[in-house]
Amino acid sequence: MTEHPDSPYAPDELVRQGGVGVPDAFMRLWTPHRMAYIEGENKPTSSAAGSGCPFCRLPGLADADALIVHRGESAYAVLNLYPYNPGHLMVVPYRHVADYTELTDQEVADVATLTRQAMQAVRAVSGAHGFNIGMNQGDIAGAGIAAHLHQHVVPRWSGDMNFMPVIAGTKVLPQLLTDTRALLAKSWP
Asked: Which active-site residues does the annotation give?
């Protein structure tokens, strides 16, 4: 690597840092709020149920404080604190279970109903063109909180994979989560 005249780093240090700090034509878009998720903020240190699990703790809070959009009989819908897209919800059973096969028939029905209603509410509020819906079962499958089952409902729009996430690794969320929660709660079928 050649030394840039404006760089405070010696050439060998630039190689170790992968060129970071070398002036170039790229604008850096920083998303420090994502570091909280990466570093495990709010992630339980144990797989046990109770106050250490955010999905067990949230139902004990006021809906607006917990970002809960709707409460069902055996599950609830809550905004994702670290959303992939605006309106990204999760449907979570109240009971602390890790695996879909552990759900009762009532819980399965409630999760399905709340997922359908979440899609209806998001479409009514934002006109989503489609959805990614799914569960990551276990740490190895990418579950951020593997001990408490949750299903993601991620709204999608034509062209939502623009240059920001593809090139810049950045999501633009045009609305505060509290505002999104209020709109979705008001529009819940």
From this structure: 150
